[in-house]
């Protein structure tokens, strides 16, 4: 339920800088079902009723709002003793489902606004007895309603509107931190917060509430908080990227028992009959026998094997074998020769997907030949400036968006297939669109785009969404070309690679990148091109060593802290 104030009456302007008379008309009460009053990402919301309040609602004025839910779904709402709305909830079926008449209650303001509440009282409708009373004026209220100060150093998606710490979205954020600010305390803080939500199965909450202490507050909805199984995979991979960036083996050892519980749960989802991963519900792809779930599991298990080896655990061969067997099943059962790519799922081989392609290539499940073929097959998914998530989505459907999240995952796959032109085009198109219009340019990455490059959810689009920020680390790793070497030898950049192949193909005259090292130090590369000659400068800790290569040129670099050379392109 939302009650909105009068925006402009008799020359009295609202004190709010941002008002929306279309979504929230003045002096109006809105009744909605779902997650809010407008659609948020893929979470549907439905306006059930809209009615005028029979007087002007003013700012800085207290009103007594009474909501009565009677038998058989009868709902009555009054403001200061005057009836405003009277409906029967059984008359509504948003999304084809009846409106629930049970559940919790809460209070809050609409986006960009402020609202104040006091003296909350809940009565039993039948016998009029008081079942809840709270003046809402004490500091304990902030704890009860999850609005206390931040309990940890954590990273959010869409921080302007989210109070959730998203496990899967942190896949991108973890990598962004490692390629930019080096704020690794935020990375560890986020994992520390998330790991406190682990349940007996080994699963970690996919979106715990920032304002609640997970050690003291039970989950508000088990299905909602643990319901996206692929986010378990993405969460572990975020951790694996942190270890790769930092070589923080102390933190790996400290938390490994919890990660192993999660890995045991992940491994239990490999179907012994099909050899593929079968999950309950996934966000990015098919849950049962899907290319996304199976290939992301391969990547997760191989990453786990690397970390286990680095910290001296005996489980590394087990994870490596599980990954090898699963990769074999994917190649035997999910490759569609006619399409030249991996099918969406065992039961839907004629559909291709962005996320399935992305992980089947980034996990090295695909051979070199199949990687090149799968990248070429992306033409089937191309839509506007980027790629739609599945080939079966209607190009003109209102719900069909370009996701910088999945298109960011896809960048890795395109680079694995060494299609430099396609990768460059995707970077310019999708991330370039976020910079073109001064009215929508925020300096940060977006949540969704339309195929034409506008904010994908209209005014409700988050324009500060880390899940859309893959370009940040791709520019460092592939355009400037600075990345860690493969395997545990690359942990903490003990061994590194400079391979500016993509930057050269983009026609850049120069590029530079610097990565923060843990616990201190940095690794830096600069290069410039003139008259088909590339001048390269690299600064690195002397205890590290690296390889520079581009085209057929390859140089081994070690036993120094500064390297300068020029090569012929």
From TrEMBL:
All residue ranges annotated as the Alpha-L-rhamnosidase C-terminal domain in the record: 492-561
Protein name (Swiss-Prot/TrEMBL): Alpha-L-rhamnosidase C-terminal domain-containing protein
GO molecular function, one term: catalytic activity
Signal sequence, start to end: none
InterPro entries: 6-hairpin_glycosidase_sf, 6hp_glycosidase-like_sf, Bac_rhamnosid_C
UniProt organism field: Fusarium oxysporum (strain Fo5176) (Fusarium vascular wilt)
Protein origin, superkingdom: Eukaryota
Entry's Gene Ontology BP terms: carbohydrate metabolic process
């Amino acid at each position: 339920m939302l009650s909105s104030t009068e925006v402009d009456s008799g020359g009295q302007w609202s004190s709010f800088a941002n008002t929306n008379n279309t979504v929230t008309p003045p002096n109006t009460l809105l009744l909605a079902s779902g997650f809010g009053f407008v659609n948020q990402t893929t979470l549907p919301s439905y306006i059930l009723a809209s009615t005028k309040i029979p007087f002007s609602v003013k700012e800085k004025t207290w009103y007594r709002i009474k909501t009565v839910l009677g038998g058989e779904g009868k709902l009555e709402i009054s403001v200061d003793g005057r009836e405003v709305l009277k409906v029967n909830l059984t008359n509504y079926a948003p999304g084809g489902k009846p409106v629930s008449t049970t559940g919790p209650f809460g209070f809050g303001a609409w986006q960009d606004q402020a609202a104040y509440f006091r003296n909350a009282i809940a009565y039993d409708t039948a016998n009029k007895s008081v079942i809840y009373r709270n003046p809402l004026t004490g500091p304990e209220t902030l704890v009860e309603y999850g609005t206390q100060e931040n309990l940890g150093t954590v990273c959010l998606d869409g921080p302007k509107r989210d109070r959730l710490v998203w496990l899967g979205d942190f896949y991108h954020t973890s990598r962004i931190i490692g390629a930019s600010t080096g704020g690794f305390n935020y990375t560890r803080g986020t994992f520390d917060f998330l790991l406190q939500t682990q349940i007996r199965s080994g699963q970690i909450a996919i979106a715990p509430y920032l304002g609640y202490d997970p050690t003291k507050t039970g989950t508000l909805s088990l299905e909602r908080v643990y319901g996206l199984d692929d986010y378990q995979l993405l969460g572990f991979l975020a951790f694996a990227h942190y270890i790769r960036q930092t070589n923080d083996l102390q933190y790996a050892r400290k938390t490994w028992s919890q990660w192993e519980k999660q890995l045991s749960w992940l491994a239990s989802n490999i179907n012994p009959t099909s050899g593929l991963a079968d999950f309950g519900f996934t966000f990015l792809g098919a849950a049962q026998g899907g290319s996304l779930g199976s290939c992301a599991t391969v990547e997760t298990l191989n990453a786990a094997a690397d970390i286990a080896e680095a910290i001296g655990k005996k489980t590394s061969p087990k994870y490596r074998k599980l990954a090898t067997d699963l990769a074999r099943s994917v190649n035997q059962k999910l490759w569609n020769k006619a399409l030249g790519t991996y099918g969406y799922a065992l039961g839907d081989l004629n559909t291709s997907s962005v996320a399935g392609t992305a992980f089947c290539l980034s996990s090295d499940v695909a051979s070199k030949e199949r990687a090149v073929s799968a990248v070429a097959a992306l033409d089937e998914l191309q839509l506007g400036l980027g790629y739609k998530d599945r080939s079966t989505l209607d190009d003109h459907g209102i719900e069909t968006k370009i996701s910088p999240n999945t298109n960011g995952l896809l960048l890795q796959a395109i680079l694995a297939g060494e299609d430099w032109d396609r990768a460059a085009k995707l970077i310019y198109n999708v991330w370039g669109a976020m910079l073109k219009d001064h009215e929508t340019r925020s300096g940060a990455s977006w949540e969704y785009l339309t195929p034409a490059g506008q904010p994908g959810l209209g005014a409700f689009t988050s324009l500060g969404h880390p899940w859309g920020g893959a370009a940040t680390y791709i520019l460092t790793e592939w355009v400037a070309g600075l990345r860690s070497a493969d395997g545990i030898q690359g942990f903490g950049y003990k061994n590194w690679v400079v391979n500016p192949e993509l930057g050269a193909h983009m026609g850049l005259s120069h590029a530079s990148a610097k990565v923060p090292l843990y616990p201190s130090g940095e690794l830096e590369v600069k290069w410039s091109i003139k008259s088909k000659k590339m001048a390269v400068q690299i600064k690195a800790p002397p205890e590290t060593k690296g390889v520079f290569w581009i085209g057929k040129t390859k140089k081994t670099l070690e036993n120094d802290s500064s390297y300068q050379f020029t090569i012929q392109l």
